[in-house]
Amino acid sequence: MLLSAGPALAEDDASELRALKARLKQLEQKMETQARKEEALAARQNAIQNAQMTAKAPVPFDPCASGKLCYKGVTFTFGGWVDLTGIYRSRNLASDSGSVYNFIPFPQSKNYNTGESRFTARQTRFSVLAEANATENIHVAGYGELDFEGAAQTANSVATNSFNPRLRQASIEIDRSDLGLHVLAGQSWSLNTPSKAGIDPRGADTPGVIDFELVPGFLGARQPGVRVWQDIGPEFRLAVSAENPQTSFFGGNNPLVGTPAVGPQGVLNPNLLFNLTGPGGSFFNSLNNVSLNHVPDFTVKGAWDPRLGPYKLHVEAWALYRDFYDRFNFANHDVNTVSFGGHLSAEIVPKLLEVQASASYGALGRFTATPFPDATVRQDGSIQPLPITAFLVGSVWHTTPSLDLYAYAGLEKTKATFSNVGTVPFGYGNPLYNNLGCNIENSPAATCNGNTSEVRQYTAGFYDTIFKGSYGTIKAGAQYSYTQRFAFQGVGGAPKTDDHIVMTQIRYYPF
Q1: What are the extents of the domains in the chain?
Q2: Which of 71, 286, 347, 356 is the most buried if burial means most Cβ atoms within 10 Å?
Q3: pTM given for the model
Q4: Once rounded to an integer, what is the mean pLDDT over residues 482-506?
Q5: How does pLDDT run across 194-220, given as a tens digit for each residue?
Q6: Angle made by CA atoms 335, 341, 346, in degrees to the nearest 5
Q7: Contacts of 469 (CB under 8 A, 6+ apart)
Q8: Whether 305 contacts 346, CB under 8 Å
Q9: Is the pLDDT reported for residue 267 higher than 70?
Q10: What sections of the sequence does the record tag as coiled-coil (predicted)?
């Protein structure tokens, strides 16, 4: 019995050992599976963290990328284009590539019934961006840009068309990547000019039209100043600037700086001073006036670029402080104003449909496309700012990789701001101003004051890429715009006028 029991016990032990080994192998397989799951989860978490870090981190500066020129540690990027623009206007403005909407003539003017046609190459533009890393965390950039829209007294369209170059931008920018801090000094787009992303001093979200005056409702200027902005997280930026001030006063019937008369026949002359003509050697053109200003323009702006998957969205809001200044009858007068506005730029359909919209309100005449005056003067020499309301909406449809269609609508309007001394009218939009001759050709100029109350415009066009390669890009486009100018009610009614404008353009982008 003992002998027969021995092999049985040995066989049971072997079976139990095999069972234990099988269970151990199952446990090992489960542990390996769990380890693989944990590794995959960790890898996925690391990938998400790396993607987030990459999204938050700025794009590294390539010191010598393809297509750029490098010299002594500085990288140069060239830009610009060669341009030819064709222009037709149904009302003759005697203007080049920019339409001065506030001077569309009423029927009183002989040029109301004469068309205007010309070619111009003056929108040709050149730019250069110089960049370098001063330290690991300090990036320095210098930018310069010019075109040929300047017109000295020797410039003409008769024989040589010798129009002089004009400074558009010249600035230096210093960026601290470790602090998210940026400083700019020089001439650039004003801070209240809309950007397409973040705080961009060198670019602007301008309507993509051919007319150099863009579209009513778009506010912008280029002027010297200092700007500081801070990155607050990956999506929000806050900026403040101090910029060169100028004031466009309404003088008589002339809304541009340059006519010292206020009210009919210049009632306040010669005791009123609100601008000066530069003397010889002042480095200002002797035919241009400089307004009296003693406080810079101050602007604060916030920009938000939220992350919405494949969709791009940019929202910004700003406030502008200005001070207007004059002297009358041995006393100085000044007034402070605050204006505000906002802008939105978005991709409705990624890489296919873009929209933009802007709205603003305040004493913003010098920034408008019309242009409107900033202020007028009361009979005692005190200053009355002119409030401007401006709206713009537009869209660009990228129908194919080479063809873009665009459409914009905008308006700029102001309120009547006036006062009287007895029967003598002062101010802007005064109902006592004489408009009797505005609709009668060649009537005396004094019978058509016609202070502009509102300008509206509707614009549509296309831009097509004809050739594109290592040699650069050639594009061509055409647009049509319909502009209406309305005047305030005066003696004889409220005159209005309009202009049909057709423009064509061909550009070569060599860079």
Answers
A1: 85-122+157-509
A2: 356
A3: 0.83
A4: 97
A5: 999 999 989 899 999 999 999 999 999
A6: 165
A7: none
A8: no
A9: no
A10: 10-50
Cα within 13 Å of Cα(499), Cβ side: 28
**What does the DSSP 8-state code read for residue 164?**
P
Q: Side chain identity at 384, as an amino acid letter? A: Q
Q: What is the DSSP code string of 39-108?
A: HHHHHHHHHHHHHHHHHHSPPPP-TT-TT-EEETTEEEEEEEEEEEEEEEESS----SSS--GGGPPPTT
Which is nearest to 385 in space by CA: 367, 364, 356? 364
For residue 33, the one-letter residue type is T
Residues 6+ apart with CB under 8 A from 296: 225, 242, 243, 244, 245
Residue with tokens 């030819």: 84
Residue 426 near residue 267 (C-beta atoms within 8 A): yes
Per the listing, tokens 């004094």 go with: 446
Of 431, 433, 385, 391, nearest to 411 by C-alpha is 391
Residue 196 in contact with residue 187, Cβ under 8 Å? no
Cα dist from 303 to 178, 230, 325, 348, 469, whole Å: 20, 10, 31, 19, 35
Residue 86 is encoded by which pair of tokens? 């064709």
- The residues near 501 (Cβ < 8 Å, ≥ 6 apart) are 87, 88, 89, 90, 99, 211, 480, 481, 482, 483
Is residue 446 a contact partner of residue 434, using CB atoms and an 8 Å limit? Answer: yes
- Amino acid, single-letter form, for residue 181: L
The burial class, CB within 10 Å (0-12 / 13-18 / 19+), for 11 is exposed
Write out the two tokens for 368.
């408008």
| SS3 readout for 275-320 | EEECCCCCCCCCCCEEECCCCCEEEEEEEECCEECCEEEEEEEEEE
Residue 172 structure tokens: 């230096």
Say if residues 272 and 328 touch (Cβ distance below 8 Å): yes
Q: For residue 120, give the nearest of 166, 85, 159 by alpha carbon.
A: 85
Within its chain, how far is the Cα of 424 from the centroid?
41
In angstroms, rounded to a whole number, what is the distance separating the alpha carbons of residues 511 and 78? 6
Strand pairing report for 375-377 and 403-414: unpaired
Q: What is the distance between the alpha carbons of residues 249 and 333, in angstroms, rounded to a whole number?
A: 14
- What is the dihedral angle through the alpha carbons of 116, 121, 123, 124, rounded to the nearest 10 degrees? 170
- Taking a C-beta distance cutoff of 8 angstroms, is the pair 299, 314 a contact? no
Average pLDDT over residues 350-377: 95
Please give the Cα distance from 107 to 124 (Å, whole number). 34
Q: Give percent of the chain above pLDDT 90.
A: 67
Q: Are 338 and 362 in contact (CB under 8 A)?
A: yes
